[in-house]
User: Fold this.
Amino acid sequence: STRKESSAASDVYKRQDPHSLTHNFIPDILFDRNHQLWIATWKGINRYNAEKDNFEPLSLHSDKVPDLLIEKISDLNEDSQGNILVGSFTGFGVYNPKTLSFKHFPHDSKNSKSLSSSRVSFVYEDKQKSVWVGTYHGLNRFDQKTGTFEQFWHDPAKPHSLSHNEVQSILEDNNGNLWIGTDKGLSLIHI
Assistant:
């Protein structure tokens, strides 16, 4: 058999080029409803500009922690309002591409209604428009009106709790159930 070579560039990160990707580690890619391509990297988010055939880095700064630049992006998703949901190793964020605004929601150990961990692995909006944030220490349902979180944990005394606190994936089935993939198995949440 013959091997076909890709005509696509395999390395578009060029350290000296401000219009290349900001990093070569790409944990996620999102193609939104406006046909915009978003690339999650270890050095932030890049938006592909098709007209100019280049990448435009987004400079996301925390609105809660002065001087905190949001990097190490782990997951991207789009909500029903066209916002970009951002999972990172410094928390969860919501980027509004229309207003170019960014709201950051880090973990706060003094607040039980905050995100359960700042290391976010997965973000997802279900059919009821609830936003779910999987972290390395629990699952969270985000209340967009109040900016607070309901936390879900593994509890060995409760057989119907999460199978493990390290959440890796979230998927909704046709019946409205959430399937939660963790480091120690699969959990099912009836919503």
